[in-house]
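Appendix B, record 7
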Amino acid sequence: DDSIKINYWLNGCFLGTAFAHNLPFPSSTSVCNMLPNDVRTGYFPAVTLNVNETSVLSSCEFIFHPMDMFECPLPIGYKPLMIPNLVDFDDLLVPYPFNAYLISHSSEDNFENKNSTTKFLRDFINNNHLENKFEFDNDYYLFLPEQSQGFSLIINNNESTTISFDFSLPKMPNNCHDILLLTFNTDSIRIPINKIVNPTQIAIIFEINQQKLKVYINNELRMVKCSIVEKFTVYILPRISVRIQNVAIWKYALSNEHIQRLFTSGLSYIVNDYHQIRNYRKSINSFTFNGNNFENDFINVVNDNEYLQLFGNKSHLILSKSNDSWSEYTFIFDVIIHSLPITIIGLNAQTKISITSDGQISLIINNENSIQSESKLKLNESIRLVICVHHKSIRIYANGLLILDNILATFSMLFIFFS
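Structure tokens (predicted):
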């Protein structure tokens, strides 16, 4: 139990141990008791952030790493936030790349739809999504036709850079001994046909200071002298019909050991982390209601938290918020409406979004101006309403269709739902 402690980092820098069990608080003679003791618990971990108008801090995340439990195991009475599946990262996996594309076996994961006309390849790490003009095949590879210039990546680094990718050839070319692996500036790298298997794993290290390349082809290393500048574009597998997957970039030179781990274990763990983080962030931005939340005869929770039922004329929900101005926010409602009219949400005392008695979505501004949708919603049917406020505009979608788009200038201290 004496090993219980809380360490703090800021932007990746270790700040030290702030609290430790059975040791005094900082600048105090009081001893810190971090053990759970029901209602008599004497200590609850907390963090206070001082933020003013000049602060650049816009968000804060708490990361509880399962590996910490080796040094600081949970005492009796504590329960973990989630039960981790521990992996020995030191012996198995390659470090996180700076960018990662095409690493999922789901085309839905690999695409990031920024708008209705253009598809982008999702960057699973830093959201540097790439505009994409190629198609996927049935095996979740990106297909590059023979007439293309190849898969392009911009390399912008004044030291070393590592890129990796896997590729497969639908059919081996006839009457040639090698194929063009990549081009950049005036240089090109070719790969012998007898080194190609399906899939072929490639890792390339650009060492700018030494003006050379390390090219790994299925664990076999080749050294190539070339002229490398700080910023250039790489064209991978140009002018050949090929399928490509598992594209990643590190802004430093991976060690030979890390290259072996990459070829052995791959990057699928990043996809698992991506889904865990996305589901976690989705959960913390969702409201879950149960029967104990409300002392109101007009509010009822149905089917064990499956949905919330409101009836009568006195029921409504209130969501308070901070004094900070929200320039962007989104509300998503899956609702079944049994009677009309109804006010879905009040953004403030003057601005409301309602459904009229004939089923039209109505935006009421300053309690006077009313903008109504052309389409009408039906009673007793499940409807997904999405309300997106972006700076000075508002868009409302019903079951995925845009039904209202208008200018909006409002500041909300609280939101009132279903009044």
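Remarks on this record: Residues 1-86 form one domain. Confidence is low (pLDDT under 50) at residues 289-295, 297-306.
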